[in-house]
Amino acid sequence: MGDFKLTVLGTRGSVPVEGKNFAIYGGATSCYKVQAGNEEIYLDAGSGIVSALPKATSNITILLTHMHLDHLVGLPFFIALTQKDRPIKIYADKRVGLMPKEAIDKLVSNPFWPCKIEDYPAKVSFHLLPKKFFIGEVEVDTLEGSHPKGSTLYRLTYQGKSIVHATDFEHNSEACAALANFAKNCDILLYDAQYTAEEYERYKGYGHSTPEEGIKVATAAGAKKLIFVHHAPLRNDEELAALERKFGVEFAKAGDEFLL
Ligand SMILES: [Zn+2]
Ligand SMILES: [Zn+2]
Predict the structure, then answer these.
(1) What is the Rg, in whole angstroms, of the alpha carbon atoms belonging to the chain?
(2) Ligand 2 centre and the CA of 230: distance in Å?
(3) Which bound ligand lies closest to the C-alpha atom of 13?
(4) pTM of the predicted model, to two decimals?
(5) CA 143 to chain centre
(6) Average pLDDT rounded to a whole number, residues 7-14
(7) Residue 10 phi/psi, 5° resolution?
(8) pLDDT tens-place string over residues 176-193
(9) Contacts of residue 90, Cβ cutoff 8 Å, sequence gap at least 6
(10) Buried/exposed 19-40: b ≥16 CB within 10 Å, e otherwise
(11) What is the pLDDT of residues 117-159, one digit of tens each?
(12) Which ligand ends up closest to the CA of 148?
């Protein structure tokens, strides 16, 4: 029992940005904290995870969608890694033939970084992602998305409420039908709307989607709330606010909290 809460720690796509033009929506890359009672679940470990302050008493799990830099670059700076013997579970699917630890070791090791994850004081364990499992009382369902070399979509359900995380997802009729079914009647759908429809024409195959397609999927799914994520790196506050007005859908801001 306890609250079920989503906090946006970072929602920028591709690469972190900073400066006055990005002050409102934030420049940190993908990381969302889901609190469910005693469980603290982090969806991705982009630079947004750097500002996370986990409670001393909570259980920490990190669910990775895939290994692209914008979803992983904050991991070596996650404060919980410096806490002695603190258990941290990391789940990910096999990507390009690499087990989760093998993939992370490629980034978090010399010459890119002076140590490996196992050299931190925390007690980190790596797990190959099951299709469906439980973290405490949180049910975790997964679906393979449409993205170069793959990306995992997550549905987290707690006390009858669900959050669906669908980033690094490119629309096509088959993928959208599968996502609409996966996200059926969810309470919150986080959807990758990195490109405008016009930009998308130039970036087909890059693995991202548009607001128009997000609205279609959310409608088909009967999602109660749609939130757009993975903002293009150079999309400034003014442009994001204009897109919000145009589509009548919220674009996530770092620091946003949603109590379910
Ligand atoms: Zn990404
Ligand atoms: Zn990606």
Answers:
(1) 17
(2) 10
(3) 1
(4) 0.97
(5) 14
(6) 98
(7) -165, 140
(8) 999 999 999 999 999 999
(9) 61, 62, 64, 100, 104, 124, 125, 126, 127
(10) eeebeebbbbbbbbbbbbbebb
(11) 999 999 999 999 999 999 999 999 999 999 999 999 999 999 9
(12) 2
Read off the pLDDT of residues 76-116 as tens digits, 9 standing for 90 and up: 999 999 999 999 999 999 999 999 999 999 999 999 999 99
In the reported structure, the alpha carbon of residue 90 is separated from the centroid of ligand 2 by a whole-number distance in angstroms of: 18
Q: Which residue has the tokens 């128009």?
A: 212
List domains and CATH numbers for the chain: 4-259 (3.60.15.10)
Give residue 206 CA to ligand 2 midpoint distance, Å: 8
Give me ligand 1 centre to Cα 151, in Å.
Answer: 9
Give distance in angstroms: CA of 2 to centre of ligand 1: 31
Is the Cβ–Cβ distance between 141 and 155 less than 8 Å?
yes
Q: Which ligand is nearest to the CA of 194?
A: 1
Amino acid at 206: Y
Quote the CA–CA distance of 189 and 260 in Å, as a whole number: 12
Which listed ligand is nearest to 16 at the C-alpha?
Answer: 1
